[in-house]
Amino acid sequence: MALIGFIGLGNMGSGMAANLVKAGHEVRGFDLNPDAVKQLAEKGATAAKSVEEAVDGADAVVTMLPAGQHVRGIYEGDGGILSLAKSDAVLIDCSTIDVASARAVAEAAKEKGFAFVDAPVSGGVAAAEGGTLTFMVGGSQEAFAKAEPILQGMGKAVIRAGEAGDGQAAKICNNMLLAIHMIGTCEAMNLAQRLGLDPQNFFNIASQASGQNWSLTSYCPVPGPVPAAPSNRDYKPGFAAPMMLKDLKLAMDAARSVDASTPLGAEAQALYQMFNQLGGESLDFSGIIKMVSGEFGESAD
């Protein structure tokens, strides 16, 4: 088992770090929020008072941070991970950030001789807590081989997407597709109900027909058909609407950088922007059905 420094104990990171403890690793956790560090320590980790304390002597360092500037700052900045970690440590960034930042950190790590991967996740808070995340990993074959055993302690699938930054590319493409699917599923469910179809009956049909998709069968935005979905918990976030908007903005920025046509992605970003502005920022991203149906704010006509 490994000694792991884990930095960033928010809604996702706290569950991920706890699962590393359950997997038998020795985990040192650090976050700017002392309560988050204390809660992780209660689950068997060691509370670190600083990044330096978390990283010192660690076999692996895992980061889960909000945005590219935070990742670059904590790796490349004065007293950052690249100046603190032991030379044979594997560095794993699980944040969802822009591709350019991921590749810049990877290059800086390579120059100092570190094995580094970008490994953003899919699955949301429930999967982070349950240890069933999917990791999309960018980095060399050698770095992936070192990171894979650590990532397996937090997820059900660890997939190498390609070279540095490719994990981030896969994540934003996946989540753009997810957003488009969710909006389409909400529109179809709303139309079905207005046409007099029972939601459960329509679910039974569509989930076995050509309209089948993950947003319908695993995360149905209408209460009832999928008991574990946030729709049955008043849309308490599993994957919050502001996080979906963040990922869509990253996808649109990436699309512009390579001159890719993404009209549905752009429309999805506009709709999630509207949803957040109308009060959806406290809800799960599937809660956009409330806007689609006109239940609150205004419908997206």
Automatic annotation (TrEMBL):
Pathway: Amino-acid degradation; L-valine degradation. GO terms for molecular function: 3-hydroxyisobutyrate dehydrogenase activity; NAD binding; NADP binding. Residues 165-291 form the 3-hydroxyisobutyrate dehydrogenase-like NAD-binding domain. Its EC number is 1.1.1.31. Keywords: Branched-chain amino acid catabolism, NAD, Oxidoreductase. The keyword Membrane does not apply. InterPro entries: 3-OH-isobutyrate_DH-rel_CS (IPR002204), 6-PGluconate_DH-like_C_sf (IPR008927), 6PGD_dom2 (IPR013328), 6PGDH_NADP-bd (IPR006115), HIBADH (IPR011548), HIBADH-like_NADP-bd (IPR029154), HIBADH-related (IPR015815), NAD(P)-bd_dom_sf (IPR036291). The active site is at residue 171. Pfam families: NAD_binding_11 (PF14833), NAD_binding_2 (PF03446). It catalyses: 3-hydroxy-2-methylpropanoate + NAD(+) = 2-methyl-3-oxopropanoate + NADH + H(+). The keyword Nucleus does not apply. It is an enzyme of class 1 (oxidoreductase). It comes from the Bacteria. Residues 4-159 form the 6-phosphogluconate dehydrogenase NADP-binding domain. GO terms for biological process: L-valine catabolic process. NCBIfam families: HIBADH. Belongs to the HIBADH-related family. This is 3-hydroxyisobutyrate dehydrogenase. The lineage of its organism: Bacteria, Pseudomonadati, Pseudomonadota, Alphaproteobacteria, Maricaulales. The gene is mmsB.
